[in-house]
Design a protein that fits this description.
3-stranded antiparallel beta sheet, two-stranded antiparallel ribbon, alpha+beta
Length: about 140
């Protein structure tokens, strides 16, 4: 009889040791620690989506480049292209993440793009979701 054992990251075995920080920085001390790899992966994905290419000096290919898309025409075809781009970039930059489902919608009147996607952590089979909205104000 086979058992579906759940793998646990070694970082999760020490619950009092922080492994990252939450985004946005909203604590009194600016940084609030994160204690699980599932939660830190979520914040890493949000950081990736909000970062433009060439924004990091020593890692110029990091980032989804969503803000640059706000100045392009928002059409069904451009949203499908953005969806495929996000899937390929996330899976290339986060080897432990498999995108399960993704929705990309644009509002041309407000110059905004809304992205919702769910993903699975490959090592632990845990699932989570990310939802962000980029808007030109």
């Amino acid at each position: 009889m086979a058992y579906g054992l759940r793998q646990i990251s070694p970082l999760d075995l020490r619950p009092s040791t922080g492994i990252g920080v939450k985004i946005p920085f909203s604590a009194k001390t600016a940084f609030q620690s994160v204690y699980t790899t599932k939660e830190q992966t979520k914040y890493n994905l949000i950081n990736f989506l909000l970062t433009d290419r060439r924004e990091r000096p020593f890692n110029p290919t990091f980032g989804a480049g969503l803000r640059s898309r706000l100045f392009q025409q928002i059409t069904t075809m451009s949203m499908d292209e953005l969806k495929q781009s996000i899937i390929s970039q996330v899976e290339a930059n986060f080897q432990n993440v498999k995108v399960a489902q993704i929705e990309v919608s644009g509002d041309p009147g407000r110059n905004s793009i809304k992205i919702k996607f769910s993903y699975t952590l490959i090592n632990t089979s845990e699932t989570d979701a990310v939802s962000i909205q980029i808007q030109n104000v």
